[in-house]
UniProtKB/TrEMBL annotation:
<keyword id="KW-0418">Kinase</keyword>
<keyword id="KW-0067">ATP-binding</keyword>
<feature type="binding site">
    <location>
        <position position="190"/>
    </location>
    <ligand>
        <name>substrate</name>
    </ligand>
</feature>
<keyword id="KW-0547">Nucleotide-binding</keyword>
<dbReference type="InterPro" id="IPR029056">
    <property type="entry name" value="Ribokinase-like"/>
</dbReference>
<dbReference type="GO" id="GO:0009228">
    <property type="term" value="P:thiamine biosynthetic process"/>
</dbReference>
<keyword id="KW-0784">Thiamine biosynthesis</keyword>
<dbReference type="GO" id="GO:0004417">
    <property type="term" value="F:hydroxyethylthiazole kinase activity"/>
</dbReference>
<keyword id="KW-0808">Transferase</keyword>
<protein>
    <recommendedName>
        <fullName>Hydroxyethylthiazole kinase</fullName>
        <ecNumber>2.7.1.50</ecNumber>
    </recommendedName>
</protein>
<comment type="similarity">
    <text>Belongs to the Thz kinase family.</text>
</comment>
<comment type="function">
    <text>Catalyzes the phosphorylation of the hydroxyl group of 4-methyl-5-beta-hydroxyethylthiazole (THZ).</text>
</comment>
<dbReference type="GO" id="GO:0000287">
    <property type="term" value="F:magnesium ion binding"/>
</dbReference>
<dbReference type="InterPro" id="IPR000417">
    <property type="entry name" value="Hyethyz_kinase"/>
</dbReference>
<dbReference type="Pfam" id="PF02110">
    <property type="entry name" value="HK"/>
</dbReference>
<keyword id="KW-0479">Metal-binding</keyword>
<feature type="binding site">
    <location>
        <position position="116"/>
    </location>
    <ligand>
        <name>ATP</name>
    </ligand>
</feature>
């Protein structure tokens, strides 16, 4: 069932615009190329929205945002929403400052096709719309954030994905858990950012809920294979790109456990 999504992606070879952070750009681009997409790191305000018209999908990651990039992100997201292009929001470290909270709030209001983050980010973002008396806690688990994810999915009328030891994907009504991956993934910078990029690639001309699950399943499977073929975090990066590139579509259905919640 998941095999058809990656086969379609590879045949389609979509162009994905990424307004992502400086730390992640290389990893995001390589991950998208590995799964069959063509990445474009276009973030200048003067061209961001114009390029969104050309691209097949958009991903936005607020990791190293500034006021200039904020305007680019809003412009590109607004264009994607206006012309019905799929787009993914990654609210990286949104709980750290008021500036990030405000930006994440503005982007969420534009209603991304998919919102992806870790448990603490999803809980914090849910707090923008539904006050929560507890601050962001790094000990938050995926299970802690599941209700917040459902709330946010209903608000954006889209998909919310939580990354963790077991990933969680919901559209507000139906939810699944995706098993796999490796503990070493949490020791490598930009892995989550790369997943956001891969989701953007999978979304092009495919049903969003299934495409998001397929992206997570592919990424988790690749992470497991990469862990077996690396010595540590340094070699894992290269092994991860190789694993994404080498995935055979049938392996996702055969090897990845996906469980309805």
């Amino acid at each position: 069932m998941m095999a058809s999504y990656i086969e379609f992606l590879r045949n389609r070879a979509p162009l994905v615009q990424n307004i992502t952070n400086f730390v992640a750009m290389n990893m995001v681009a390589n991950a998208q190329i590995a799964v069959g997409a063509s990445p474009a790191m276009v973030h200048a305000l003067e061209e961001a929205a114009e390029f969104t018209k050309i691209a097949d999908a958009l991903t936005i990651n607020i990791g190293t945002v500034d006021a200039y990039w904020e305007n680019s992100m809003i412009a590109a997201a607004s264009m994607a929403s206006t012309i019905n292009k799929p787009w993914v929001l990654d609210p990286l470290a949104l709980g750290a400052t008021k500036f990030r909270h405000r930006l994440a709030s503005r982007l969420l209001a534009i209603k991304p096709t998919v919102l992806r983050g870790n448990a603490s980010e999803i809980i914090a973002l849910n707090g923008i719309w539904k006050p929560r008396g507890k601050g962001v806690d790094s000990s938050d688990t995926v299970a802690d954030a599941e209700n917040a994810a459902r709330n946010l999915a209903r608000f954006i009328s889209g998909i919310v994905a939580i990354s963790g030891e077991v990933d969680f994907v919901t559209n507000g009504e139906r939810s699944v858990r995706v098993f796999g991956g490796s503990q070493i993934m949490s020791k490598v910078t930009a892995i989550g950012c790369a997943l956001t990029g891969v989701i953007g690639a999978f979304l092009v001309e495919q049903e969003p809920f299934g495409a998001t699950i397929a992206a997570h399943a592919s990424f988790s499977y690749a992470g497991n294979i990469a862990a077996q073929n690396s010595l540590g975090p340094g070699t894992f990066n290269s092994a991860m790109i190789d694993a994404l590139y080498a995935i055979k579509s049938f392996e996702i259905d055969d090897e990845v456990k996906i469980e309805d919640v």
